[in-house]
Design brief:
Elements (H helix, E strand, L loop, with lengths): L1 H14 L7 E3 L11 E4 L3 H14 L2 H9 L10 H9 L4 E6 L8 E2 L6 E5 L7 H15 L16 H10 L2 H5 L2
Parallel strand pairs: 2-3, 3-5
Antiparallel strand pairs: 1-2, 4-5
Length: 175
């Protein structure tokens, strides 16, 4: 009976596009910071991405590594100013969409604070999804990387910062 109920709930959500979307608040952060990531999805892995991304962007070691980076590409701001900008409140909503034959793992529309993860490409390794969340969050903060090709962009804030963020996911898994 319990298994039948679980199946009904699962298939009810999948087949009913009008099913309610659950909003989940993320991990508690120190009172002197503002929560940045929330989830507007019923997918548990997106709640975990949100929790971990929230933890990473408030991690002092992560921010120190950003601050000590010599110079990021595609910006004239020094690393200390970038760290300050990353500390600014930028509310992000993590949601999902489905596009089957797309190479896109996630995106956001210009001027929007909603990050859409493609359910056809996710879930992936959790640290890669946190990298993606940071990448898109950096765009919300106004940082770019030129065109949409990753090659040669490892030192931009979205790509390089995302790679730095990946290194702190393990620490946040134990938080």
């Amino acid at each position: 009976m319990k298994n039948l109920l679980i199946l009904v709930l699962l298939f009810g959500c999948v087949s009913n596009p009008a099913a309610p979307i659950v909003t989940v608040e993320t991990v508690q952060v120190p009172s002197n910071t503002l929560t940045t990531f929330t989830v507007k999805s019923t997918l548990p892995y997106l709640a975990e991405v949100s929790r971990l991304a929230e933890c990473v962007i408030h991690d002092e070691d992560f921010l120190k590594e950003i601050r000590s980076h010599k110079q990021f590409d595609f910006t004239d701001l020094p690393s200390l100013e970038i760290e300050k900008k990353l500390r600014e409140y930028a509310p992000i909503i993590i949601s999902s969409y489905s596009k089957r034959f797309s190479k896109t793992v996630a995106y956001r529309n210009i001027g929007s604070n909603i990050i859409y993860f493609n359910t056809q490409k996710n879930p992936r390794v959790i640290k890669e999804m946190v990298n993606t969340a940071f990448h898109e969050w950096a765009h919300v903060q106004g940082f770019g990387h030129g065109d949409n090709y990753a090659k040669g962009k490892e030192n931009s804030i979205p790509y390089g910062g995302g790679l730095i963020a990946e290194k702190y996911v393990e620490k946040c898994l134990n938080f």
